[in-house]
């Protein structure tokens, strides 16, 4: 028996037309580094999105579901692209300007991008790559920046404002299937080629509703959200769409992501909400400690992308700014969990909930899978790999114009769930605590040993500066932990003392038999422990390992 | 190009499994009229819903998408039925216990209900009808009430608790299409047969997200919602589903809907939110004026079903309780608008927004259609019939087991929008103000005259007790207004004086030519002006009409 409800698709077009009418007065404010920021109403954004769509179709010949790329900071023009491109039936491809040049070349070719809209300030990054980007028929430039670097570039170059000028401010948007592609984003994995995640109109619409639910970010037209998280990073955590759905004002930093301008824009524009990764908040804290600024308007901050040090949350609590942990990834749109504590708790009682990754909304189903593939209980103790399912969760990667979608076994289960690659526990109240990346866990005789727990326990020793624990092959157990330790200057602890110290806080079967003292832990370009290097050094016999 | 997102259906089953796990500790509290209310956790509700589904399938033989009716107050057992029936693939049919007996017989037959779950206290209503309800194979009774009235009833009678006892507390819920029927509700129109609205899993899921969005009711597990609006009335405005989605505690009044017990349960259980029609809040206000009670926990109240007198909103403001207007109907699930004012206003500036019907969420598209079928601007002045479109809006009525869906021309536009039958204006900020029912508007020479505006203007005259204005046929203009006036005792105003008074506030072309003084305005059973009767009296020549 079918319902008698109307069959109305959930589309980005609908979010646009709602935002530009019902919330037509809400604003996108873009920082310019000059005395006055640029201010543009949702109604203006909507009219300009229509002009952009006309230009893309009539002038640049974009048809069907062709891909249009952006290489842009967070600003009003990027928001216009966010709505024009999917609403006309094309697919928005946000290019991550932090990708290595060869990766940028690879993803533009793989997505078969026809057009790129680029901020003038990013032309020095794009121009040298253009000869290697044959799919790009047009380059559209917006905002300040020296255009001369494009001289002699093969594709036709256009000025964004000239392209829009004089075109109709309304567009007869096509009817779209809600499962059609709206936007895509490539993950920058450390191994292999980048993987394309393709969001649908449906997934973006549902995710936007969730962002605005009171249990998540809970935003309305009474809010102004400072969107620091880049628009090329998982659609700026869905904020440009979510804000148009309920009329939330956006404050966009453009290229001014340094602590001083961020502090200045917060004090002068008084956003009520913000979203960014921990490093941004660490930099801002140092800035306002040195040069005090009033951040108190920003009552709520969504923090994700990496675990937030509790000390950072405490420091911001004192400034009247509450950091709220969220967990997600490119494959999860990204809202997977948010760490809003349950009701009726004191600040002290809330703390253990705030330092978790948070709780799943109804749209995200979760399960923990153990070393043997078994599903583990939510008891706060059983650690397994987190797998998730839901309407805004990827079930595959884009296979390219002529290829089939990719479903690598290490990323998707047989029944279609996403394997997150994160290992953790879930409490009986549904709060997730992540402990390791799956690839960093030591699989020892059918049990998992957390490398992070061992590292923290070793680093608690007063003589230890740093410690990294990695899995190494073991004939009997499959894998066993190898402890690599950096001692503080002048420290004298020996292996036996370290192991005895560790035995005080860790179960005996988890204690490493292999130890080595090294001068420094190898790091990645963003400062994380580079365990790949340690594993390779061990395999190549480069480490002086003591067994005990 | 399709997206790479997972294809996960939006189902009531998912809301249930989320609520009973992540929010397993949230509670449904049902008032019993005794010293202690009944308290049941979401986890228990979920376990009992599984038991109910087993009983319905294994014991009562409910299969496929058969209809299971409820004739119940708001209570925990009714919530169990809300989740068990749709999740097993069957269809929940909530019977409106205020329907006339012949209408109840009609809707049970039309829906082909197989089973009815009934509160013991409602058996005196059901028992005499049973001989006329041949589709009902089983009657399941729950809660207090004399069972002897069922003696000799043809269908098999079961005790709810006995039926559940000992059955498995988990159920292997089937995979369902999100467009499948989940629940149905008949509208009790004043003319013709009741019309069946069939909600889908998808419509209920999306509506639940909207209810929990901060711009709407904005509920979380920190809230307790007092659900006074009956579960047989548009799914209690979607609250049982919305609360399970985010863990909102529910306070259920069962049959204790009188002002005194409502005041008592608010003072002792301290709900933070409530939902009911204006008459409930009027009765409660009189009660707490006579017998003071602390209602201050209930900071937010959703009020709908009829326009709320501004005086009532002011009176509750003084008690620290904010009434927020919502508009909707059975055909709109029901959330159509909510009157949350825009940001940055003083209490005084908020007032003109609070007395509107409110603003549309992104999920509800709206348009105003004028007398000639033209679409009218949102200028706060152009009055037209409101038509709406969206995923939780009906596009047809149920045609019965063997019939096709019904799409009467006066209820659905050719392009599938719902004609609400309400006439009003929309401001440029998207706030809706309703003025008339479409059938009460006077269509005069291609323009519309608001009967409500004329009535209010006439009733402002000091000699007038009541006035009702109806459309009557007119050879030249199509329709013209007829003013029927009830004078106060001893008043002396004549027709000319009344017309002159009216001319001060109304455009000349809107002034009625036909006037009659009557002893009283005919009223419906719920106290509304019964304009059908006046139109018939006029047509039959029963009124003494003066033309001037």
TrEMBL record, chains A, B:
One of its GO terms (molecular function) is ligase activity. The keyword Nucleotide-binding does not apply. Pfam families: AMP-binding (PF00501), AMP-binding_C (PF13193). It comes from the Bacteria. SUPFAM superfamilies: Acetyl-CoA synthetase-like (SSF56801). Residues 35-398 form the AMP-dependent synthetase/ligase domain. InterPro entries: AMP-bd_C (IPR025110), AMP-bd_C_sf (IPR045851), AMP-binding_CS (IPR020845), AMP-dep_synth/lig_dom (IPR000873), ANL_N_sf (IPR042099), ATP-dep_AMP-bd_enzyme (IPR050237). Keywords: Ligase. The keyword Ligase applies. Residues 453-528 form the AMP-binding enzyme C-terminal domain. PANTHER family: LONG-CHAIN-FATTY-ACID--COA LIGASE (PTHR43767), MEDIUM-CHAIN-FATTY-ACID--COA LIGASE (PTHR43767:SF11). This is Long-chain fatty acid--CoA ligase.
